[in-house]
Amino acid sequence: MYKINSNSYVLLAQSKVPSFDIFLEIMGVSSRKFASKVLQFVYNEIYLLSKDLKYEYNNYYSIEYDTFEEYLNNMVGTDIEGIDLEKEHLFYFETYVQIMDLSYEDNYLDIVLKILEENDEN
Amino acid sequence: MKIKLDFVSNSSSTSFIYISSGEFSEDSFFDAVGISQDSPLFALFEKMYYVLKDAIRTGDKVINESQLVQDDKYPNFTPEVIDRAKKALNEGSDVVISRLNSDGILEESFLCTEIFEIESNEFYINAYDNYW
After folding, report:
1. Which helix (H) or strand (E) covers residue B33, if one does?
2. Do B110 and A98 touch (CB under 8 A)?
């Protein structure tokens, strides 16, 4: 499950980070054409420019905070119910990419996140 | 009507050039941009197609080479693009210069603010002048 908090930050738990080619395949987009350039922005925002809170906790905060959950409550202060904290990665990012921008009523953020979650479970 | 929430911005527009020897069809567009009809994001690119199609329909049809000069009315296309347009005119192809608005729907606003080039056997769109 993913979460979008009141400040428009997204929490997305994933088992693995797909390569960009796999990401395009998941999204039904051919490489090296215009649509792949659009999706490059999306991929970068989710996987490259985001914070991986699991990584941050394991490498920098696991002594200061007894549990990952405690770290999350302190660091992001967000409702994490339903988020699978056992997954390898927990990406945390704000949506700057226009097609996922929450200030647009008909944005594509939910569609993208749902597809990534479904793919992660397969 | 689709609405944008949260803040107000000044709207502006950017230009693109369209060159075609045939019809600007959905199939040729989707093939050119690389989107499958099964894609979960197909609707995004379908809307982009209709935005561009509408802009092409309402744009300025270029009849002769003198319209391709760099002035305030038309943007600063590169010499290569202008040469391509001149060649297309000489071959009897359609050349249209049109505009995209930042205040339109999400898909138009995205296209307005992005630099892009889309090419197929049937058409060529250059929006490299869209620096925002």
Report:
1. helix B26-33
2. yes
Q: What is the CB neighbour count within 10 angstroms for residue A60?
A: 10
pLDDT(B17) > 90: yes
Interface of B with A (CB under 8 A): 2-7, 32-36, 38-42, 44-45, 105-106, 109-110, 113, 116-118
List, for residues A64-98, the tens digit of each pLDDT value: 999 999 999 998 887 788 899 999 999 999 998 99
Q: Verify whether the Cβ–Cβ distance A27 to B7 is below 8 Å.
A: no
The whole-number pLDDT of residue B6 equals 47
- Contact between chains at B41 and A104 (C-beta distance less than 8 A): no
What does the alpha-carbon distance between residue B112 and residue A103 come to, in Å, rounded to a whole number? 17
Residues contacting B15, CB < 8 A, separation 6+: B74, B75, B97, B98, B99, B100, B127, B129, B130
B42 alpha carbon, distance to own chain's centre: 18
At B37-52, the pLDDT tens digits run 999 999 999 999 999 9
Cβ separation A105–B41 shorter than 8 A: no
- The residue that leads in pLDDT, A20 or A4, is A20
Q: Which chain A residues have a beta carbon less than 8 Å from that of B41?
A: 27-29, 35, 39, 108, 111-112
Distance CA A116, CA A29 (A): 14
